[in-house]
């Protein structure tokens, strides 16, 4: 028998999240974007693209902080995590859209920077996990009361 989703404990696996590496990647992408935008005569698009990447990095750092604070509680609530995520994403989105509107058309670079950051974030966290899986170094912890290899499809 399986546990219903609403009754399941709130568990977050450790993720290969390295903010320093992400900052360096964002700085390199920003430099390339500014150079490309400068050559095409739209330097500010590249600058706003970098602002979008920076907003994305800020969001990722806030995610890490909120996950740490919520999971440190004795009884973490999924609803508090969902509310925190929705609020944070709404604020970051509104900031990005306000910048894009005020500084249009170059300000649209912020929206594209935010979007690209999500791709960079997923790749920077998924690739190390994928490499571990391919190398066979992945160790799956056995949960309490279950034997390895059992499934809940019965």
Written account of the structure:
It is a multi-pass membrane protein. The protein has 154 residues and is mostly helical. It has a domain at 19-71 and 106-135. Helix content is 67%, strand content 0%. The chain has 4 helices and no strands. Helix 2 (43-71) crosses helix 4. The protein is flat. Residues 145-154 have low confidence and may be disordered.
How is this structure best summarized?
The chain has 154 residues and is an all-alpha fold. The protein is 67% helix and 0% strand. The protein has a domain at 19-71 and 106-135.
Provide the fold topology.
Blueprint: H1 19-39, H2 43-71, H3 78-102, H4 108-135
Helix pairs in contact: 1-2, 2-3, 2-4, 3-4
Name the features.
67% helix; mainly alpha; 154 residues; flat; single chain; disordered C terminus
- The protein's oligomeric status is single chain
The rough form would be described as: flat
Overall strand count: 0
Termini separation comes to 7 Å
> Beta-sheet strand percentage?
under 5%
- Supply Rg: 20 Å
Query: How many DSSP helices?
Result: 4
Average pLDDT for all residues? 80
Main beta sheet strand tally, sense and closure? none
SSE ordering: HHHH
Give the structural class: mainly alpha
The level of helicity is 55-70%
Poorly predicted runs of 5 or more residues: 145-154
């Amino acid at each position: 028998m399986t546990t219903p989703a609403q009754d399941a404990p709130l568990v977050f696996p450790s993720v290969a999240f390295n903010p320093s590496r992400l900052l360096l990647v964002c700085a390199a992408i920003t430099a390339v974007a500014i150079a490309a935008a400068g050559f095409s005569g739209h330097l500010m698009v590249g600058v706003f693209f970098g602002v979008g990447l920076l907003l994305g990095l800020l969001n990722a750092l806030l995610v890490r902080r909120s996950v740490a604070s919520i999971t440190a509680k004795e009884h973490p609530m999924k609803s508090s995590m969902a509310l925190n995520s929705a609020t944070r994403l709404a604020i970051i989105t509104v900031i990005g859209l306000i910048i894009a509107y005020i500084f249009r058309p170059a300000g649209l670079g912020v929206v594209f920077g935010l979007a690209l950051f999500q791709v960079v974030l997923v790749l920077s966290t998924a690739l190390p996990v994928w490499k571990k899986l391919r190398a066979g170094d992945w160790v799956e912890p056995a949960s309490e009361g279950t034997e390895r290899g059992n499934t809940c499809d019965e």
